[in-house]
Amino acid sequence: MHHQIVATTDALGGIARHHISDQHGRRLISKGRIIQAADVVALLAADITQVAIVRLADDDVDEHTAAAFVATQGAGVGTCAQAPHHGRADIVAQQAGVVVVDETRLAAWHQRSGITIATVRSYGAVQAQQRIATVKVLPFAVPSHLLSDAPGAVIAVHPFRVQRVGVLVVASSSQVGQRMRHSHLPALVERLRALGAPPPTIVDVAFAEDEIGAQIRQLLPQCQLLLSVSETSIMDEDDVIPRALRTAGGEVTCYGAPVEPGNLLLLGRVAGVPFVGAPGCVRSPHRNVVDLVLPRIMAGFLPTAAEIYALGHGGLLE
Known about the structure:
Elements: E1 2-7, E2 15-16, E3 20-21, E4 27-29, H1 37-45, E5 50-55, E6 60-62, H2 63-74, E7 79-81, E8 88-93, E9 97-101, H3 103-109, E10 115-119, E11 125-126, E12 131-137, E13 141-143, E14 155-159, E15 165-171, H4 174-183, H5 185-194, E16 201-206, H6 209-219, E17 225-230, H7 240-247, E18 251-255, E19 266-270, E20 273-277, H8 289-298, H9 305-309
Parallel strand pairs: 15-16, 15-17, 17-20
Antiparallel strand pairs: 1-5, 2-5, 3-4, 6-13, 7-8, 8-12, 9-11, 9-14, 10-12, 18-19, 19-20
């Protein structure tokens, strides 16, 4: 790019480097506009005799073309790039699901001066047509070589796949279980509905290892996800619910999460089916650890222990 200050009469075809206003503060030319003959007339009428412009070099790609290219290259499965505007091009979700960002490729794009891509966070739930990323090319062009050997797609949306959910209401008595159906389940059922699942299968089970294990085995053939809500939160990996999970042939993936609210989270798997031992905060409609892990599980991603521990950065939810 060539930055110049030229006589207004020589500005035709140049790109306005800044907004240009008259002496009364009325804007005549917006930054980035290609100056036309009528603009020259208006500027001269306002006694503006010099303007700062940019002229593109032969190997420059203008901001709109460059933004459109980067957005198209950066849009992965389940997404699409929108038409460019003001040196920007958005990427939107084509379906409801969970976002996955390739951070390595995102960083690789940002090694190229003048190209910026802002995305939503990985593993968040999104709706169809929601903007999930925006590409901005910094004024007013980039050299063509920066667009060669593109790093590739940086963002994708994976659809929610889980439809059949089983919920175990673990309580010391039927009376307590009935109270928990009213106190714990409405917010959880609404979360599942928002992630595309129909009402879950809900079963009451006594606070006993053998009975919980038997109920897990009974639900397995008909469920793609199992959750438990209990009268008291799971206190350690030797508590009743993790023991019952192992009794049913399952394993604990992770116990404990660096998230507040929601430290006492249990994740596991049994016969390939994810198991979530929900902490007491699941009863609340306010954002908690369940909102961080449930969308990705509903899209088929069971978080690893390392991924759960990584939630500590930003895990204080207020």
